[in-house]
Backbone:
């Protein structure tokens, strides 16, 4: 067993783990962070995406021991004070999901993308989330959701013409990436 | 699936890493970014006795200039490569190829050196390193040695890095001035490996191509240089016709595999098409 210290969604943990433990299993089984799901188990689908020191990673392809000393943010840690993250809200409002299984990873990858590129083209959104597979939606509404969120986070109205922008709390704007 | 149990070592220097590898028993694997190693360990295709994690060896990260060369630390992540201004300026071919590697999440963890030592024939960086005449600095118990790219890729998933040795850094000659570069990759779906890809660097002067270097991805068990194309381009006019004629030689001497994605003859066809596109773009046409 190896001792690790990690901060996950703002709380500090000290645990003994087997070196072979995957980060996603540590999060789900030892910490109960079951919002992060295991999809393919082959590093393809991105459903298990979390942020490790502010960068999106596939938590099925990281060992828990590699997260020692790091800050992990899961889908359970992106809302603030009961207020959904703008990307979460956008997936809800733009119906960016059907079964919902890919959604935690989609949202974590999208937050990471928007931190690097706050005003992406549709193609850049599609490339930015190429590491995340959705087998329900055909991605159309996911791209709309990311664009909608991008607009809200920039403080601009989201102008994709499909759904009237909801009332925006701009005070809750770009507040997540890199924080715990 | 989860990996089989292993002993875990986390050195903080290259010397400590070499010691941990020497002390690790029969089957030691070096963990860089883990984006290839962890999947194969999960599938139990690899079940090493000891894993030596280089994550804390900070001396292996980063890009610096050394005279006429860029020196890229083996543990520099793909994301760090993409963000690096020196690479954009002096070796844009590396940036172009790195952008096509897997996806954002994998690029955040995966490393430049890890991808080269893994040496997957469909990996994007080996052909680029070969086309750029990179040099590989390898540390071992006896000290350090430098291996040119043409001797580095030995066979399928096999490089000149021996057991007990570690890739430390890669030296890439700066190609400035009249050099143009292009990586052309063909794959079917997002985040997929190359079916075939071509890395081209072309020096153009007075309407002529004075030198061309062409690397081929996934046209055999190792990356290859398209020597016949390079010879045909040397001194050729920089015209679409001359480039197309030279590119027709791209598959000469290659023995690509046939698999689920493509038959060998299709790969050979792709090599000529992608070489024409890559050289055309690199020549600024």
Residues:
């Amino acid at each position: 067993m190896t001792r690790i210290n990690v901060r996950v969604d703002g709380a500090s943990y000290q645990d003994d783990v087997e070196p072979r433990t995957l980060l996603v299993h540590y999060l789900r089984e030892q910490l109960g962070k079951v919002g992060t799901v295991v999809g393919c188990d082959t590093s393809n689908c991105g459903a298990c995406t979390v942020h490790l020191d502010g960068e999106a990673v596939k938590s099925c392809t990281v060992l828990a021991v590699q997260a020692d000393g790091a800050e992990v943010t899961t889908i359970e840690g992106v809302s603030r004070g009961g207020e959904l993250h703008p990307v979460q809200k956008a997936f809800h409002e733009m119906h960016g999901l059907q079964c919902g299984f890919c959604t935690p990873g989609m949202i974590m990858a999208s937050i990471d993308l928007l931190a690097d590129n706050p005003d992406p083209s549709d193609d850049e959104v599609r490339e930015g989330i190429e590491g995340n597979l959705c087998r329900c939606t055909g991605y159309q509404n996911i791209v709309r959701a990311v664009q909608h969120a991008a607009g809200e986070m920039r403080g601009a109205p989201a102008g994709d013409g499909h759904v009237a922008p909801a009332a925006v709390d701009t005070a809750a704007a770009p507040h997540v990436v890199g924080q715990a | 699936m989860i990996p089989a149990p292993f002993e875990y070592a986390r050195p903080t220097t290259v010397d400590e890493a070499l010691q941990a590898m020497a002390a690790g028993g029969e089957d030691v694997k070096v963990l860089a970014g883990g984006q290839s190693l962890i999947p194969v360990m999960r599938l139990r295709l690899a079940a090493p006795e000891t894993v030596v994690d280089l994550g804390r060896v900070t001396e292996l990260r980063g890009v610096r200039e050394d005279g006429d060369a860029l020196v890229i630390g083996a543990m520099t992540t793909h994301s760090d490569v993409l963000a690096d201004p020196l690479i954009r300026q002096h070796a844009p071919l590396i940036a172009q190829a790195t952008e096509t590697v897997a996806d954002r999440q994998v690029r955040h963890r995966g490393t430049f050196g890890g991808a080269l030592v893994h040496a997957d024939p469909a990996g994007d960086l080996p052909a680029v390193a070969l086309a750029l005449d990179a040099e590989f600095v390898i540390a071992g118990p006896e000290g350090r040695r430098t291996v040119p790219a043409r001797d580095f890729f030995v066979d399928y998933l096999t490089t000149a890095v021996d057991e007990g040795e570690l890739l430390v850094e890669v030296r890439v000659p700066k190609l400035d001035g009249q050099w143009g570069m292009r990586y052309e990759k063909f794959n079917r779906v997002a985040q997929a490996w190359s079916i075939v890809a071509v890395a081209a660097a072309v020096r153009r002067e007075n309407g002529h191509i004075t030198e061309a270097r062409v690397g081929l991805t996934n046209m055999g068990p190792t990356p290859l240089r398209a020597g016949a194309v390079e010879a045909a381009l040397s001194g050729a006019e920089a015209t679409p016709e001359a480039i197309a004629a030279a590119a027709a030689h791209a598959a000469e001497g290659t023995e690509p595999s046939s698999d689920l994605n493509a038959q060998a003859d299709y790969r050979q066809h792709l090599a000529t098409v992608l070489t024409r596109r890559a050289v055309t773009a690199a020549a600024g046409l």
